[in-house]
């Protein structure tokens, strides 16, 4: 009888240990993951094709670059510090990637009020960054929300894969080769870049409106 009692006690202790171990594993798997957003070029505003709008951000006039390729809104630390009534920055693990793959240091994020007119004010999330010569910019989603840009209806033509292969047999048969030879010269120390897909490139919007 005593031996059986000791055995039951050992089994109970083992079960409790196993349950606690599983709970610890489950908790660790719920830790938030870091996000990565693309913001393009944040230092150049003198190019001819750059669009700038002046809006009040928490009461301060700020020149904001309209960047339809950016996935978020960016505010340099110098401009943020110049805002009188500014909120406290919230720590974030989000990484911002600029053109060329460079990582932009993020100080934190906050929600600021953009005033277009006296009766039109919108709360917008900004990432505050610390980078040399950084410029303030607003991304595609915010530009659409503020109605700074508009995208007309785009018609999509859907074709079945089999129909395309049948119509262009010569393209999908054998190994494709370009006639002749071509010499490609690469810039020394060039950095590879990657651009996220845009709904409509900014340069094509005027042509799109004409259709």
From TrEMBL:
<keyword id="KW-0548">Nucleotidyltransferase</keyword>
<keyword id="KW-0808">Transferase</keyword>
<dbReference type="InterPro" id="IPR021109">
    <property type="entry name" value="Peptidase_aspartic_dom_sf"/>
</dbReference>
<keyword id="KW-0378">Hydrolase</keyword>
<feature type="compositionally biased region" description="Basic and acidic residues">
    <location>
        <begin position="14"/>
        <end position="24"/>
    </location>
</feature>
<dbReference type="GO" id="GO:0004519">
    <property type="term" value="F:endonuclease activity"/>
</dbReference>
<keyword id="KW-0255">Endonuclease</keyword>
<dbReference type="GO" id="GO:0016779">
    <property type="term" value="F:nucleotidyltransferase activity"/>
</dbReference>
<feature type="region of interest" description="Disordered">
    <location>
        <begin position="1"/>
        <end position="35"/>
    </location>
</feature>
<dbReference type="InterPro" id="IPR050951">
    <property type="entry name" value="Retrovirus_Pol_polyprotein"/>
</dbReference>
<feature type="compositionally biased region" description="Polar residues">
    <location>
        <begin position="1"/>
        <end position="13"/>
    </location>
</feature>
<protein>
    <submittedName>
        <fullName>Uncharacterized protein</fullName>
    </submittedName>
</protein>
<keyword id="KW-0540">Nuclease</keyword>
